């Protein structure tokens, strides 16, 4: 196992009716801004309930954070925050709203340059307003991590940033809040979670038995429970297990002390930025293609994955690996997430744009693959296979 440091400061309030504790989690003298997305939190009545819980607080609200939140929109909120001397941010929504709020928290305190430097120049964020979240869609895991991904329209790119100061102070995870989400968003979340686990698991072995077994148990939970949610969407037990699996998949625990490879995400973000495909859907098409193209680099872990996750015992090593990739694709398709980008009307003409948008990453010293071996030529192969 590699050396690691692990600290996760986010308090989780998990289960039904945890919103009732909201007023105990925010400092009494705070000036709060409730931030939400387009319309779902209003329609479901959640926004009214949040306001009820904050009736004794000085609060304001700001709606309209779009899916794949943009720098340009978020800067409007930053202006509002500064003008109204807001000092606590409350995100009510899915990954996009929460990521957006993390950026607003950081940009409102940023003094080392202009806020776009946080993304484009990756200037470290050392200060941020405190924030809390009420999650309405599980999958991204942003409710318990120090990361956010923001689209910069002027650059045509989707750029992650991370900092210890943007972890939520608390996150309220009530699985019943996800009931109103469309099933295709639930499916996106399950495939996204699956990919988060694979990006930290499917590299090379470092004798990290706890992390491996933990990752495998999360994968098996998704495979066994995921498809059931399509038939019984308001089954609390299912939703609770899927929600907690998503949070545990990307809160630092399974990724501590092991090599990681976030290439599916980096390529997926480039596709979302240029072609506006949902994040989870890009994962469904890119992950199996990476498994295929990188099967030599990932050989030992692919075999472990085949045996322990899919219980494949028969056949040659090649056949076991091939079957595990097939099973992965089959699972995504059962979840209703296509493994082909052509299902969204994309064709080979996207390849040059995606490759071009990945070139600046090389300038920032970001390499793809756990050993940096996924060159842009190999990314081209990945894209060809995913179409
Ligand atoms: O805007 P509203 O009206 O809220 O509607 C949203 C949106 O249209 C709707 N929705 C959410 N909860 C709902 C609901 N509709 C009905 N009932 C509910 N309970 O669903 C749509 C999609 O929401 P969005 O927040 O965009 O989805 P998701 O949670 O999948 O978040 C995706 C974003 O997270 C980023 C992605 O890149 C993408 O921008 N990610 C963030 C990560 C992180 N910070 O660690 C990691 C992930 O890999 C990912 O990159
Ligand atoms: Zn993701």
UniProtKB/TrEMBL annotation:
Keyword ATP-binding belongs to the record: no
Domain Alcohol dehydrogenase iron-type/glycerol dehydrogenase GldA: 9-175
Gene Ontology molecular-function annotations: alcohol dehydrogenase (NADP+) activity; butanol dehydrogenase (NAD+) activity; metal ion binding; methylglyoxal reductase (NADPH) (acetol producing) activity
Residue intervals of the Fe-containing alcohol dehydrogenase-like C-terminal domain: 189-356
One Pfam short name: Fe-ADH
Keyword terms: Oxidoreductase
Top-level taxon of origin: Bacteria
Gene Ontology CC annotation, any one: cytosol
Transferase found in the keyword field: no
InterPro entries: ADH_Fe/GldA, ADH_Fe_C, ADH_Fe_CS, BDH-like
Protein name in the entry: Iron-containing alcohol dehydrogenase
Source organism per UniProt: Vagococcus hydrophili
């Amino acid at each position: 196992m590699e050396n690691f440091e692990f600290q996760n400061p986010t308090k989780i309030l998990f289960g039904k009716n945890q919103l009732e504790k909201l007023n105990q989690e925010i400092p009494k003298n705070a000036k709060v801004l409730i931030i939400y997305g387009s319309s779902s939190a209003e329609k479901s009545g959640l926004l009214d309930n949040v306001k009820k819980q904050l009736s004794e607080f000085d609060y304001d609200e700001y709606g309209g954070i779009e899916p794949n939140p943009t720098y340009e929109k978020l800067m409007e909120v930053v202006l509002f925050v500064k003008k109204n001397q807001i000092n606590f941010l409350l995100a009510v929504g899915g990954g996009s709203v929460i990521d957006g709020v993390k950026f607003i928290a950081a940009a409102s305190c940023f003094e080392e340059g202009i806020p776009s430097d946080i993304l484009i120049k990756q200037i470290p964020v050392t200060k941020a307003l405190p924030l809390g979240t009420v999650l309405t869609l599980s999958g991204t895991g942003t409710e318990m991590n120090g990361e956010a991904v923001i689209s910069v329209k002027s650059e045509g790119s989707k750029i992650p940033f991370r900092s210890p100061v943007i972890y939520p102070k608390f996150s309220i995870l009530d699985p019943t809040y996800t009931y109103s989400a469309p099933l295709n968003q639930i499916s996106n979340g399950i495939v996204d979670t699956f990919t988060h686990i694979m990006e930290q698991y499917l590299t090379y072995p470092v004798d990290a038995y706890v992390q491996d077994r933990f990752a495998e148990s999360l994968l098996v939970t998704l495979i066994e429970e995921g498809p059931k949610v399509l038939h019984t969407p308001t089954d609390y037990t299912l939703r609770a297990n899927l929600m907690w699996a998503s949070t545990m998949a990307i809160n630092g625990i399974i990724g501590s002390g092991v090599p990681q490879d976030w290439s599916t995400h980096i390529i997926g973000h480039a596709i979302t930025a240029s072609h506006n495909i949902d994040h989870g859907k890009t994962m469904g098409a890119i992950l199996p293609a990476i498994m295929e193209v990188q099967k030599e680099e990932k050989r030992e872990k692919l075999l472990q994955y085949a045996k322990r996750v899919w219980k494949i015992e028969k056949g040659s090593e090649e056949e076991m690996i091939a079957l595990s990739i097939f099973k992965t694709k089959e699972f995504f398709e059962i979840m209703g997430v296509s493994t082909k980008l052509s299902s969204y009307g994309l064709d080979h003409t996207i390849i040059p744009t995606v490759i071009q948008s990945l070139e600046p990453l090389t300038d920032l010293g970001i390499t793809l693959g756990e050993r940096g071996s996924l060159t842009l030529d190999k990314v081209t192969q990945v894209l060809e296979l995913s179409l």
